[in-house]
């Protein structure tokens, strides 16, 4: 019996635009039986748009040297929105320094003239 069954990973989508999500693993002798088992075990529980069944041995993980190529350069912060998060605080400080109470009250006299 050893070697007859293979491990398959089951992924699904709730709608055509939703991302794939891993649901569970199962043992089956081939792809066709694995798909039937996935449908029987999963689709009757909740509505899905699509099911993917993949043999675990066909899934390849990146090696460490391949992951290094994905790292961003240090000087690319301007490409992410977090690089501008400080502006709101800076603007608030600028407004508080510029519009103090004396200045605002002085406008009243200028408007009446």
What's the quick description here?
The protein is an alpha+beta fold and 113 residues long. 38% of the residues lie in helices and 19% in strands. The chain has two domains: 6-58, Ubiquitin-like (UB roll); 73-112, no CATH class.
Kindly describe this structure.
InterPro entries: PaaB (IPR009359), PaaB_sf (IPR038693). Pfam families: PaaB. This is Phenylacetic acid degradation B family protein. It comes from Anoxybacteroides amylolyticum. By secondary structure, the chain is of the alpha+beta class. It has 2 domains: 6-58, Phenylacetic acid degradation B (Ubiquitin-like (UB roll), Roll), CATH 3.10.20; 73-112, no CATH class. The protein is built from 4 helices and 3 strands. It has helices at 31-43, 64-68, 86-98, 101-112, and strands at 6-13, 21-28, 50-55. The protein has a 3-stranded antiparallel sheet with strand order 2-1-3, covered by helices on one side. It is elongated, with a radius of gyration of 30 Å. The N and C termini lie far apart (99 Å). The mean pLDDT is 81.
Query: What fraction, in percent, of the residue positions are helical?
Result: 25-40%
State the strand order across the main sheet: 2-1-3
**What is the count of DSSP helices, taking H or I runs of 4+ residues?**
4
The number of distinct structural domains comes to 2
Low-confidence stretches: none
Q: Based on the structure given, which CATH architecture of the largest domain is correct?
A: Roll
Q: Outline, from the CA principal axes?
A: elongated
What is the CATH third-level topology name of the largest domain? Ubiquitin-like (UB roll)
H and E string: EEHEHHH
Q: Average pLDDT value?
A: 81
**Strand-residue fraction?**
15-25%
Please report the distance between the alpha carbons of the first and last residues. 99 Å
CATH class of the largest domain: Alpha Beta
């Amino acid at each position: 019996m050893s070697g007859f069954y293979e491990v398959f990973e089951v992924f699904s989508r709730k709608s055509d635009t939703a991302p794939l999500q891993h649901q569970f693993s199962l043992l089956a002798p081939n792809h066709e039986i694995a798909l039937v088992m996935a449908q029987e075990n999963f689709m009757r529980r909740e509505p899905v748009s699509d099911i993917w069944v993949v043999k675990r041995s066909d899934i390849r993980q990146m090696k460490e040297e391949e992951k290094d190529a994905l790292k961003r350069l240090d000087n690319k912060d301007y490409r992410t929105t977090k690089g501008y998060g400080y502006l709101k605080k800076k603007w608030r400080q600028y407004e508080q320094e510029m519009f103090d109470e004396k200045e605002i009250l002085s406008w009243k006299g200028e408007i009446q003239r």
